[in-house]
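Why DUF2007 domain-containing protein? Reviewers of the renewal asked for a concrete example.
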Amino acid sequence: MMYLLVLVIVAAAIGYYIWYSKNTWKTVEVATGAQTEEVQMKYALLQNEGVRCRVKTDENPANMAMAGGPLPETGGVSPSNRATLQVHAADLDRARDILDRNDTVV
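Here is what the prediction returned.
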């Protein structure tokens, strides 16, 4: 009985952690191919302003094979690359203000 109670508590803690981690970060921008550089610049800007943010990238190998790899006109960036700029939920309004103020710079 005690084993079952511990198992339920551990499962609940893991579930809460997963829920909390997914709801802590908010997506601000998603870009693919050559536009991923803009996401990286915005990330650097937010980091310099002290905003908690991160860039998640993914590359689908199947898409790269179909696309024939990186294209020269994209600066060597694969069109199947995707970059997602995420900001901590508590910093979201501040991040949007910073990005709006610096829209012409980025």
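The domain at 25-101 is CATH 3.30.70.1530 (Alpha-Beta Plaits). This is the kind of structural detail the renewal will allow us to pursue systematically.
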